[in-house]
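PROTEIN–LIGAND DATA SHEET

This sheet pairs a single protein chain with one bound small molecule, zinc ion, given as SMILES. Inputs appear in the order they were entered. The predicted three-dimensional arrangement of chain and ligand is reported afterwards as a token string under its own label.
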Amino acid sequence: MPELPEVEITCMGLQPILQKSIKDVVVRNASLRWPIPTHLKKTLPNQKILAVKRRAKYILIQFENAYLMIHLGMSGRLELLKKNISPEKHDHVDIQFKNTKNILRYTDPRRFGSIHWIDKDINQHFLISKLGPEPLEKFFTDKYLFSKIQNKKTTIKNIIMDNHIVVGVGNIYASESLFKAKVMPSRMAKDVTLNECKKIVKYIKETLHKAIELGGSSLRDFYNVNGQSGYFQQTYVVYGRKGKPCRVCKSIIESKIIAQRSSFYCPKCQN
Ligand SMILES: [Zn+2]
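PREDICTION REPORTED AS:
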């Protein structure tokens, strides 16, 4: 699944479309998680792209009075391609630009992604309004996290993967950050100390930054906008390493389901 770093990298890769005006849009299959609005065919042409931003895992393509909000779902990707490359089965949308040989193509085999048109206050949109802060921004601090775990009858892993508390900490990044912070993913959140929150926050930021730097990638078949595969997966310290020796103490890495997903941890290094 594309995680926050892949989405960030996708946004960076989309910078060549800034200031471009849209010529046309071709929707071959509108049935994504939510149907693609049928009015885009009329609404998009002649709109000029002013910015490409990210909020959580949503890509926000900004126009003068509206946004096109794209989510990559489980298997989606956006690619800038030469316009003569013929579409294949899962290539659902092409956006064509004026005065350029490139198109922006949305591909999504599992169709869990979405494309919304938002011409009102984006912060009030039902998919955005309840989201917690961005993990890489200043607002996400040890004190903030500590305030969110008081009296919580759930695990620390559930907390950091809860989008209402902080966005974009997916399963891989949760396992990696908790290992580095030496905190067991199954620990009850209310028992985690402020000092441990400090480490958790530090390593969430560090792990995400590192993944973005390395080109992202949680998923074997993730491609950035130039069709290159990311390679962050090669550097995991604990994720996906069940049965292998801990990189720190050589104990055998264990795994169990927490927050509905496999969690990997070292029984000796983490408490
Ligand atoms: Zn260990």
